[in-house]
């Protein structure tokens, strides 16, 4: 059954682009949120880490089935080196990450 729309490769690239953008927004936003919620540096670090971790888990669950959620080039390289699963070539997924990461 042919479904109209994006090819699998284009869906992977779009997922990497969107995922990188949301990951950066979540990490930056969690730092700003933690700074405003507390004056204790230790508590700020905990709040920021928990919020950033939650964003990462949500992105992995949402984008994992489409692109493998290789939002970090190190994940893609490690996946290929250890042969965990067939992953896209790192050179294929880096271009969409760069424009998504630029505003951050």
Would you summarize the structure shown here?
The protein is an all-alpha fold and 104 residues long. The chain contains four helices and no strands. The protein is elongated and about 50 Å long.
Task: Describe, in plain words, how this protein is organized in 3D.
The chain is an all-alpha fold and 104 residues long. It has one domain (9-101). The chain is built from 4 helices and no strands. The radius of gyration is 16 Å and the shape is elongated.
Low-confidence stretches: none
Shape from CA axes? elongated
> In terms of structural class, how would the helical and strand content be classed?
mainly alpha
Task: Report the count of strand segments.
Answer: 0
What is the share of helical residues?
over 70%
SS summary, helix count: 4
Query: Strand percentage, roughly?
Result: under 5%
Q: What's the alpha carbon Rg, rounded to whole Å?
A: 16 Å
User: Main beta sheet: strand number and arrangement?
Assistant: none
Helix/strand order: HHHH
| Termini separation | 40 Å
User: Into how many domains do the coordinates divide?
Assistant: 1
Mean pLDDT: 81
